[in-house]
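Bit of a strange request maybe. I'm writing a small parser for structure token strings and I need a real example to test against, not something I typed by hand. Could someone generate the tokens for this chain?
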Amino acid sequence: MKPILFRKLLSRFLREHNIDVLNSDDADHYDYTHTLIITRTGNIQILDKVSSLLGFDAQDENHILNKPNSSSEFDLTVIIGSDYASIKPVMEFWQNQN
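Reply from user aminoacidic:
Good idea to test on real output. This should exercise your parser:
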């Protein structure tokens, strides 16, 4: 699966779990090794929910970055890394869709 297809799949997966996906764009570059959840507003509940849905530990510094931005309209940003195919919950969701 190509990253652009995974991005669409991830958006659908999150929406299926009642997570509002407000935007789905390309990252600033394509060299991310790990898929990254960046907290923007300090909303710990949404961080916990999304990290759990993706199978990440909310304390895992390889996948979680706390980068508050008081002017951000988004609680989180998810950047898809080259490890995207190893995110089992999303891949299982895809398999169940086919």
